[in-house]
Structure formats: C-alpha cells, structure tokens
Design a protein that fits this description.
Elements lengths: L4 H4 L33 E5 L4 E6 L2 E8 L2 E5 L14 E4 L4 E5 L7 E6 L14 H15 L10 H11 L6 H12 L8 E6 L2 E6 L5 H6 L4 H16 L5 E3 L4 E6 L3 E6 L14 H21 L5 E5 L8 H8 L7 E7 L8 E5 L11 E5 L6 H9 L5 E5 L9 E5 L5 E5 L2 E3 L15 E2 L10 H16 L3
Parallel strand pairs: 12-13, 13-16, 16-17, 17-21
Antiparallel strand pairs: 1-2, 1-7, 2-3, 3-4, 5-6, 6-7, 8-9, 8-19, 10-11, 11-12, 14-15, 14-20, 18-19
Helix pairs in contact: 3-4, 6-10, 7-8, 8-9
C-alpha cells in the first residue's frame, strides 16, 4: 500500500491532521530508484484504489475509475492528501509495476493497459445525480469499515437517493452527501466543497477533546499553554522545544526521560515538501533529535513518549521511532485493503544501530492521538518494556484515499486495514491504555495534561523492577 499521508501531514501541520495547505512540487517524469527515467509512459490501472494513470511526455493525467463512470481530475485538490503525485516506479514484470511517492514508501501495484478504457471521459458526470452516484459508488467499492462502524451503507444510500432531486441547491446536495458519511464517525473521511463563495467541510469522529477545545479555549491558546507548561513547569531546567516546534525533550526529576512528538514529521523546512531530499532531511532531523535525547536518557529509570497530542504524519517516522525502543527485530504492523486477503505489506522493525532505550517506556495517548500516532502506539505496545497510558486513541489508522468528484468537490475515505502483529485491527475502536489517566480534562485541558505527565512519572518510578 502506498501511504500519501507520509507526505501529506509532515510538511505543514501542528493544529490539524491531514489539513489544508499549499501544493507540493509536482514531477513531470517517473524515475527508478537509481534516478534514471524509467519507460513508464502508457496507461496504468490500480483496481484497489480506482486510479488510472495516463503517463506521457507532459507528465501524469489521473483518471478516477468508478462503477458510475470514469473521469479525469487534477492533482491539486484542497488538502495535502490530494496534492501528492507518484515519482518512482519499480517494474514487477512487463505489465505490472509498483508506483511510489518516495523510494520504499509504499506498495501500490498497477497493471499496464493497452489503451484508456472507452468509459473514460465518455459522459458528463458533473450533474447532481451523476455526482451522487459517483460519490456513493466510490464508498461502496473502497470504504473498508462499514461493518466495523455499524453502518448499512446500501440502505442509507437508498434512503438518500429518494430525497435527491435535480433542483436541489448546492448546499442541499452537500448536506445530503454529508449525512451519508456522518454515521461513520471516521475522522479520516471528509467531504470538501466550494459553493456560494465559501469552502464547506464535513468531517466527523474527531473525538471529544478537539471539539471541546474548539468550543472553549481555542486550539492555538491550548497548544501554547501546553507547550509553556511542559517546558516551563513539568520538565527540569534545560528542557528543549525543537524539531521545527514539533518535539519537546527533557527530564523529570532527573530520573525520567521525556519526549513529546506533535506530528510524525515536519521537523525541517530546509527542502521542498514532497521531494526525496525532503524525506531524507525529515529522517535525518529525527535521527539527530533521538540520538541526542536517548543519549541523555542512558541512565534514566524510565522514559515517557508523549503522543497525547500527536496528529499523525509520515509512516517512515513511526518505524524509525519504534526502532529506538527495542533490542530485537519484531513485526510492527501489516496493511491490506481486503479483509479476507493476505497483507499487502508486512513492516518489520529492526533495532536502530545508534542510541536506543530499552528500559521501561510509557506511551501517553488520548483521543487526539490519531493515524501515524496510533500506528506508533500500536507497534510499541507490543514490546515487553512498553506500557500505554492515558486514554484511548481515536481509532483512525487508515490512510485517507483521495477522490476528487466530477463536479469539482472532493472526498477522502478510509480504505486501508492496519493490523498489529497478531492480526488485530483497532480501526474504529482505538487502543485502550493499561494505565488510565485523564489527560485533557474538560475543566482544565492544560493543567490536566501536566498533572497526567507528573502522575505517569511517579507511576513509572514506583513500578521499577
């Protein structure tokens, strides 16, 4: 599976995961891992993702292949997920190839077609009913969690179709489509549209903390308060706020190491987002930070990895973090798109060859912890030296599948099934902690975090072997 969020989230976010941002650098050719131009021109089809790539001298045209029709779309949508495009190809034979956004970053397999299907561009799909049919058929084909989230999709579509009419306003059509995704309660599923001179967004399942913050203190004051409190009050003098403001490191009472990571990426702004140079710079910046922090934690009695406000990011970052807390290789997670099929990818974690910490580790989580933050937690809690604390994570692991609609609107949905080494899928349920702590209390969402960190440090010290 290819995971565009490894590009999408890192470049520009601390306030929202998979947010809206400016476009990435777009490639005009597809390259092999050695940097040479590969003979990728032609028509390529991925049934798993409903994409057809038409590659010629001018670059890539992406077609959306849906049961309701096939149409071309621009790769410059309203979210970061919709702005990345393939750069690398690994041939798997004469008519099959793996396409990736960055080297060794995914497993999206395409089949070569002799020609563009006749259905592509054959009809205007931008009308009310055609857009409805495209929207609903995309979910029918690709959304992986109807049963997990308790939604009878076909019944809901039939009810919504009965209310659809050609004279509905844009606002009414938007509300109708939004009503279909609302019961999913999936924060990796969203609908975005522009009409009446404004942008409209439907996204649900954001947990309890973020809506509480939005309706109260506000997210920027909340984050500033959390950072000031952590660096100035909870941690010992000398605590550092580093990594392009994405990471906090320090000690608690000289005995417990502390690392808080807000996003799995975005650690540097020295390279153009979406380029191989940018990906290398991200991992290099992470390595430098972890080398310094874990070297300083060599004599610590325990370490707290605080992911309670982690909004997701680059999958390679999650695996790099996991490699720092084990002495033995282990299976981190698997990914597939078919519940009955074998994993499309199995990710093994090898111990890092630099500084590591394999003493007691506590991963602090909340319902803000999502996506790559959850993947990191899922991997680490499989290790015997790691304990999860706090509250349950959000339960949204899958990479959002980006699908522009034929009327110019845009939808994302969850189509990838992430599982731990035992095959357990936590999508829609989240990861429950072993040590319960109220991380973001409604009456004091800043102070409660500091108290939770201090309580966890005390717990760690009283539970030493």
């Amino acid at each position: 599976m290819s995971r565009p969020s490894c590009l999408a989230v890192c470049a520009a976010l601390i306030l929202t995961a998979c947010g809206e941002s400016s476009a990435f650098a777009q490639p005009r050719e597809i390259f092999g891992s050695n940097g040479t131009i590969e003979p990728a021109r032609g028509i390529w089809h991925s049934a798993e993702y409903g994409w057809i790539l038409e590659i010629d001298a001018d670059g890539i045209t992406r077609w959306q292949d849906t049961p309701a029709g096939c149409y071309a779309t621009a790769q410059d949508g309203p979210t970061l997920m919709s702005q990345v495009e393939y750069r690398y190809i690994t041939p798997l034979g004469s008519d099959r190839a793996k396409f990736e956004y960055l080297p060794s970053d995914g497993n999206t397999v395409f089949e070569r077609l002799g020609a563009l299907p006749e259905t592509c561009g054959a009809q205007d799909l931008s009308g009310r009913r055609a857009t409805f049919d495209v929207f609903t058929s995309i979910f029918e084909r690709h959304y992986a969690f109807f049963e997990r989230r308790g939604v009878d999709w076909q019944a809901r579509v039939a009810e919504a179709r009965a209310r659809l009419s050609d004279d509905m306003s844009d606002a009414d059509v938007f509300a109708l489509l939004a009503s279909l995704i609302e019961p999913l309660g999936d924060s990796h599923t969203k609908l975005i549209a522009e009409f009446d001179g404004e942008r409209h967004r439907a996204q649900y399942g954001l947990g309890t903390t973020l809506p509480m913050i939005a309706g109260g203190i506000g997210e920027t004051p909340w984050l500033v308060g959390l950072i000031d409190q952590t660096v100035g009050e909870v941690l010992d003098p000398g605590a550092r706020h580093i990594g392009n403001d994405r990471v906090i490191t320090g000690m608690i009472d000289g005995r417990v190491g502390y690392i808080q990571i807000f996003t799995m990426g975005g650690f540097t702004d020295t390279q153009t987002p979406g380029t191989p140079e940018w990906a290398a710079a991200e991992l290099a910046a992470l390595d430098t930070m972890l080398d310094e922090a874990l070297t300083g934690f060599a004599d610590a009695d325990a370490v707290i990895l605080d992911l309670s406000n982690n909004r997701g990011g680059y999958d390679a970052v999650t695996r790099a973090i996991a490699s720092r807390f084990t002495d033995t290789p282990f299976t981190g997670y698997t990914v597939r798109t078919d519940w009955s099929g074998e994993p499309d990818a199995v990710y093994r974690i090898e111990p890092h060859d630099g500084p590591r910490y394999t003493g007691p580790v506590y991963v602090l989580t909340s319902d803000v912890t999502v996506s790559a933050g959850e993947i990191t937690t899922m991997m680490l809690r499989q290790l015997p030296n790691v304990t999860q604390a706090g509250t349950a994570t959000r339960g949204a692991f899958s990479t959002p599948l980006a699908k522009p609609l034929p009327n110019g609107w845009y939808v994302e949905l969850a189509n990838e099934i992430f599982a731990d080494a035992e095959g357990v899928v936590h999508e829609g349920r989240g990861l429950e902690p072993e040590v319960a702590l109220d991380v973001f209390a409604g009456d004091d969402p800043v102070g409660s975090h500091g108290r939770a960190v201090q309580a966890l440090a005390e717990h760690a010290l009283t539970h030493l072997d």
